[in-house]
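Lecture notes, unit on protein representations.

Consider one protein chain, 422 amino acids long.
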Amino acid sequence: MEKTVVELFAGVGGFRCGFNEVTFDGENVTEQPNWDFVWVNQWEPSTQSQAAFECYCERFGESENHVCKDIHEITTGYMNKIPKHTLLVGGFPCQDYSVARSLSNEKGIKGKKGVLWWDIASVLEAKQPPFVLLENVDRLLRSPSTQRGRDFGIMLRSFLDNGYAVEWRVINAAEYGFPQKRRRVFIFAYHESTNYYKKMVKVPAEQLVYKKGIFAVNFPIKDTKLDKGRSSISSKDFEDIVYVSDEFDFHFFNAGCMVNGVVNTYKVEPNFKGEIKTLGELLEEDVDEKYIIPQDKVEKWKYLKGSKKLERKKPNGETYCYSEGAIAFPEHLDAPARTMLTSEGTTNRSSHIIGVDEENDVYRILTPVETERIQMFPDNWTNIESKDMTERRRYFMMGNALVVGIVEKLGHYLEKIVEDED
C-alpha cells in the first residue's frame, strides 16, 4: 500500500512537517520522503489574503495539487480532483455539526452551511481512504453545552456509516515532553477493508485504549482506572444520523474508541518519564528592541495578567460578578509554554511575556521565531516575502497550528501500519 496523503485545512504545513521530518536552514527545505502528499487544500474564508497557502507553496513548491479553493466547492462539484489516497489528515474547526431532514427528501439530511466536517465526511464517502488522522480542540468532545457529546457523536456515526472504527485521545503536548501546554483531541479512524481493522476489532475496548491502540503505544497512559462510560451510536439505537443529532447525549472522557457502533470511553492519565522541554530553552538571544514592552505599558500588562473581579451586566440588565485568576507575569521559563493562541504578540492577557530585567520593569513579548519553536516548526518557517504574511499573521499562524512533534510520532507509527497492509 502506497504511503499517500491528502491534507485538508493544511495551514502552513504542520502535518507535512511532522510526517516528513522537515528541516529549513533559512533558504532550503529538506524533506524526508516518508509520505507522498498527493493533494493539499488550504483556504481561509474570512479574509482575501491567503498567507498560509502562500507559505505552504513557498516551502513545498507550487503545484496543481496544492489547491487554494473553498473545500466545499471541491467536494460538491470537483470531487474527482481529489485523488485516491491511503491517509486523510487535517486539523479542522469545531463547529455546530447538527443536521436535519432535507425538505426535498424525507430520507435525506442537511447539515448547516459552512460546517467543514461535512466536507470531510463527503471525502470519506467518495474516496474511502483506508486511514484517517484528524486534530481538533478538546471541547469537541463536550459540545454543545445544551446536549453534551452530540457533535462528536455525529462524527462517530458518520465514520460508522462509512465503514470505519475510531480511536481518540486528548493529548496535552507538555505531558509528553513537548514545549507547550496544548490540549488537542486526535482522532484516528481505520476502514473495515484494512488488515489493521480486522486485527484491532478483535481487541477488547479497554485493551485498545490502554495498551494496543495507536495512542496507547505512542503516548502511554497509567493503568489506573479512573472512570469510564459506554454507549451506542449504531442503527439499532439511532435509525440514522438525524436521530443522533436530535437525541444523542453522552459524556465523553479524554480517551476512547468506537467499534461497530459501540462507544467506550475512559478517563486516563499520561505516563511519561522523559525530559520536559521548557520555554526557557527556546528563547532567542539578542532580541530586537521592537519586542520590548514600552515602560508606560508595563502596568497595563500587569493588570491584564492579574486576578480580578468585575461587575458586569447581562443583556436583561441583571448584574453579575465576573472573575478571572492570575496568569504568570512574567512567564515561568523552567516549564513548557502555556497554550499559544492566535492573539499571541498582541496586548492580550493570553500573550506570553518574558522577563528581561525585572528589577527595572523590562519585559518583552515573544518573537515570531520563538512561537515557531513552541509549535516545533523550523526557525523562520513563516518568514516569507509576501505582503500578506505580516508579522502579526506569523503570530496568528502559529497560534492556529499544531504541535509538529506529536504528528511526527504518529506518522512514524502509521508508516508501520501501512507497510503491514502489504
